Amino acid sequence: MFRTIIDAFKVKEIRNKILLTLLFLFIYRLGCWIPCIGFNSSVVLENSNGLGFFDLMNLVSGGALSNCSVLALGVSPYITASIVIQLLTIAVPALERLSKSGEDGRRKISLYTRFVALALAIAQSVGIVVGYANVEGGFDPNLTAVMPKWLIGMGVVIIMVAGAMFTVWMGERITELGIGNGTSLLIFVGILSSAGSAVSKIVNLCVQDITYIWYLVLFFVIIVAIFALIVLMDGGERKVVVDYAKQMKGRKMYGGQKQSIPIKVNATGVMPIIFASALLTFPQMIISIFWPNVTWYSDWLGTNSWLYIVLTAVLILAFAFFYSKISFDTKDIAKRLQQQGGLIQGIRQGKPTADYLSKISDRITFWGALFLAIIALLPSLAFKAIGDFSGGPIVATLINAFSVTGLMIVVSVALELDKQLSAQMMIRNHKGFLS
Hints:
Blueprint: H1 2-9, H2 12-31, H3 41-46, H4 53-60, H5 76-91, H6 93-99, H7 103-133, H8 141-144, H9 149-177, H10 182-208, H11 212-235, E1 237-244, E2 247-249, E3 252-254, E4 258-264, H12 271-290, H13 296-301, H14 306-327, H15 330-339, E5 342-343, H16 351-376, H17 378-386, H18 392-401, H19 404-429, H20 431-434
Antiparallel strand pairs: 1-4, 1-5, 2-3
């Protein structure tokens, strides 16, 4: 990957795209440290401990939420909106027709996604404001002394919503003018920033007590092993060989080739983990905002309880199969193969081909979902294992910084970035041939 980046800087057009992308990322990180007027940041930090939905948003935004910055919401409303629209595209026939109507349809779906992201940004900012309005000292005492809380809260909501939509705009500009995948790169930088801040704190602890260094070394060895496992699973796939019959079209002969249909082991990515964690922690967030004295949900379904661990594993498996059925439509693939004269050896065309592909997809999805469930529950199991031993605080800090969900996102974005740069380099190198 580093060799690809070095080679990309030698091409002026790609170098300009990379520099423009770095400029947008710098502006984004700068906005993550500009405080939003109205909050008392020290109180927010005291009430944001735990491995819940707040921490997932804070991780994706690179600590912007805990910093009470103007870009506190980051790209989380847009990500959620994209998931909602994608699911509705399958369920609503009108949206499904739009998705298949070319560039104009995709442009309209993108517009609908922005509207949903705006609505979600308003809802999330209102929820955050209401939650910390009930906390003693949640708002800046200097402001509450001269103006009512509702006016302060309204100003905070406007700033946070504007920051969220500005982040969406930057992501789209990176996709259009930069090296692509703007939203993913913003998440990528946010996660690396959170990890870097945590490492600096751990290094300071190690300087104060040299015995902590062994926990740090052991943890990073485990991180490297997890990275290798994620890369292995991300690249794992089953190739189904398809033979294309020879066809005469006019005076030319077509077909007579062998191609393959790749079925990835982890085709769903981190979506099942995000769905499962959001579904279980969102009620806890609502309860903590409107009924702060109610504790039964956190006692029974807290992020480190056994019931939470079991339900998370079950939901990840369910969402993995559900998302796989959406992203890999075996009936549509079998129909296109039949139209193009494609045939899987030993399998008849039509419904038998769809059933065969569905059977293979279900088997591979099971192992991919099992992998996601195991690595998603590693933090909760690790917290139970470390208990109260002397190295517990430092390991807990590292687990929070290097969540497995974050690691999977980082690996996926890094691999996709390498593929995009390689593709652009290949186009430039073969420009004369292609023209």
